[in-house]
Design goal:
heterodimer, A: 167 residues, mainly alpha, 2 domains, two-stranded antiparallel ribbon, 62% helix, B: 161 residues, alpha+beta, Beta Polymerase, domain 2, five-stranded mixed sheet, two-stranded antiparallel sheet, 45% helix, 25% strand
Chain lengths: 167, 161
């Protein structure tokens, strides 16, 4: 995972993660487990107003065990009057949603200078230089939206079948 | 498993949404084949969030790219929708991405203002218009989105000529 993917999976700001890791003296790694840990620290500090140190300690306790219960009491005061309870099932659902978004959408950026998009001759010349078949586009424009989407449905089903056959 | 069944399911449950992304591009004439339906939904209406969550739960939605059974069961409900503004899901009906706003265009209200009605696949629904789709692809800043721009810009130029 990249740094940005880790931040998206955690639902947290990347700069905040980097700065918090420095404050906690914690070695920064970019992977799923760390993203999950930082995500809960981010929630406890941002939503409940806990200090960074306290949130980090509570998160470690909450995510430590493989509790069969969906709710984990991360801390209780000595009198037992107040507790911090983490709903692991709920947190994991939101974390998985963010992790999926990070893996699907936040693909690593291309390195180097972006390819220059020529402006000479306008969009059509630029598309041709890019390898786009303009005749294909012209024929698509002649179809109705219903015809275009029916064709997409057929082509998408074909691609799905091909993928299934090769897996 | 098809776009038709997903669009049908959403409209039957009266979910307020606009189709964006690859399917919208195909409606405008793009020849790219996409495998997922991208929608922007009205996140201001509580009833709409509930309706969408109920449809997705009925389709056994699960985050895409995550091994099933990796963790406790995924809860697909309105709270998950409210807390995850972009969901990339795989479902029994196909892959779907649901978003509460579109980069470069705005939240649902703005997306709807920049959309047009389409009747296709036996359903009547709204798709993001071509100029806004181009704006959204530019704003997304992802390599795949940039790769799509020359075709979309050529489509716009040909439609205007």
């Amino acid at each position: 995972m990249t740094a940005r993917q880790t931040a998206v999976a955690a639902g947290a700001d990347l700069k905040w993660i980097v700065n918090s890791a420095a404050l906690l003296g914690r070695r920064l790694r970019y992977d799923r487990q760390q993203a999950k840990w930082w995500g809960l620290v981010w929630l406890l500090t941002g939503q409940l107003g806990l200090s960074l140190k306290a949130a980090a300690a509570l998160t470690t306790v909450a995510l430590r065990g493989r509790s069969s219960s969906s709710q984990v009491t991360a801390a209780t005061d000595p009198s037992g009057s107040a507790s911090v309870v983490v709903n692991l099932e709920r947190y994991e659902s939101i974390f998985l949603a963010n992790l999926s978004r990070a893996l699907v959408h936040e693909t690593p950026r291309r390195r180097g200078r972006p390819a220059r998009r020529g402006t000479n001759g306008g969009s059509l010349a630029n598309a041709e230089r890019y390898g786009i078949d303009l005749d294909l586009i012209r024929s698509a424009i002649r179809r109705t939206p219903a015809e275009r989407l029916a064709l997409l449905e057929t082509n998408a089903a074909f691609v799905r079948d091909m993928r299934r056959a090769t897996v | 498993m098809s776009f038709a069944s997903m669009l049908n399911g959403l409209t039957k449950k009266k979910v307020k949404f606009v189709v964006v992304g690859g399917v919208a591009a195909a409606a405008h004439g793009s020849s790219r084949v996409t495998n997922d339906l991208d929608i922007c939904y009205d996140a201001e209406a509580v009833a709409n969030i509930g309706a969408l969550a109920s449809v997705l739960a009925g389709w056994k939605a699960y985050p895409r790219g995550i091994e099933a059974g990796l963790t406790r069961s995924f809860i697909m409900d309105d709270r998950t929708l409210r807390n995850a503004p972009i969901l990339t899901l795989t479902t029994s009906e196909g892959d779907i991405d649901v978003m509460d706003r579109i980069a470069g265009v705005g939240p649902y209200d703005a997306v709807r203002r920049h959309s047009e009605k389409v009747s296709a696949l036996g359903v009547r629904f709204r798709v993001l218009d071509l100029p806004s789709l181009i704006k959204a692809k530019r704003a997304a800043g992802r390599p795949r989105a940039f790769d799509h721009l020359p075709e979309l810009e050529a489509l716009l130029a040909l439609r205007r000529s």
